[in-house]
Amino acid sequence: MSDRPTLDEISAFLTDLKDACTIGGNSAGLAARKAELLERIADAMPGDQEAADVARTARVAADKARGGE
């Protein structure tokens, strides 16, 4: 994984999330992006078990949304 997400990356994700909530969009793609961002945040915070747990939960949800239950 790469370094922690930039403010621009998080802002772009939130903008796309807002658009998806108002006009529709690819929820599986958004879930995957969210999981990736949270994994990068957790990687940048070694020892933070809560961040790791949140990232893991997001990845499971993203995989499920993609059809990889």
Provide structural commentary.
This protein is mostly helical and 69 residues long. The protein is built from 3 helices and no strands. 75% of the residues lie in helices and 0% in strands. The mean pLDDT is 92. The chain is flat.
Order of helices and strands: HHH
Average pLDDT over all residues: 92
Helicity range: over 70%
Largest sheet: none
* Helix count from the secondary structure assignment: 3
The end-to-end distance, rounded to whole angstroms, is: 23 Å
How many DSSP E strands? 0
Class by SSE composition: mainly alpha
Poorly predicted runs are none
Rounded Rg: 12 Å
Key attributes of the depicted protein:
69 residues; mainly alpha; flat
Task: Give a short synopsis of this structure.
The protein has 3 helices and no strands. It is mainly α and 69 residues long.
Question: Secondary-structure map with pairings?
Answer:
Layout: H1 7-23, H2 27-43, H3 49-66
Helix pairs in contact: 1-2, 2-3
